[in-house]
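Section 3.1 - Work completed
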Amino acid sequence: MIVVHIGDKRAVEPIRRELEKAVLEAQKTGNWHTESWEMGIYAFGLGQLQDQAAIPLLKIMLDAPPEKTKELKFVYFIAESAAQALRSFGFVVEGDGIKGGYRIVREPAMIEQGKPENR
């Protein structure tokens, strides 16, 4: 676990490295839930710190499979965290985990150029 002061830009690199390590391991093993809380917290932090280099990892997390647990409130934590972080960069993300997941409707460059939604 990484401990930093809120807004400390020196945290960006270590947090992104930890997130990348967790995402790559989850992709490799198919187990997205061993470090789900850490991934969610890292995603949130990188969104708050506006680390654009994290966007590819966040897009991968957006499609994370639901956690198989009796605690329904924890089921889509990874994807929800990624969706929230992507929104902080200006992405338009629709959906919710309970009804079938999330999808990116528009990316920031498309919003700035005033192009119609990708549907």
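Second construct:
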Amino acid sequence: MAEPEFALQGDFRTLLHRVVDLLDRRGLKPGAHVESIRPSDERLFLILAREPLTISRLARTAGISRQAAHASIGRLAARDLVRLDHAPGSRRDKVAMVTVQGEIARRDAETRRELIQREIQEMLGRARANELSSLLADLVNGLQKA
């Protein structure tokens, strides 16, 4: 039997549609406030979900410029997922923290992620699901370096 042709674009598009359909059937479609969040914004949001940080410390933790961190926080604040407060004892520094709405969105996203992981693991089995995860991590890392 011949190997299937490598058609990554079509495969990813089909996979994305099926995942969205699965989430729809489970009533777990993302809210409008999180639908189009940039991956870089999501990364900073997840860092802030662990603890509130000043913009400078957030930038250092994420390995990005202070300006990039500030822009990302501005986009997240516009969606009411984070807010900025003055740092204690400083008129200049601001601390970014996750809002109540942000925490609700984080928990919703975690529920969706767990559902998708469970479904994939049930379809493929633990070993193949772990292999898929490893392959995707290799792709992400390889594309970051390209």
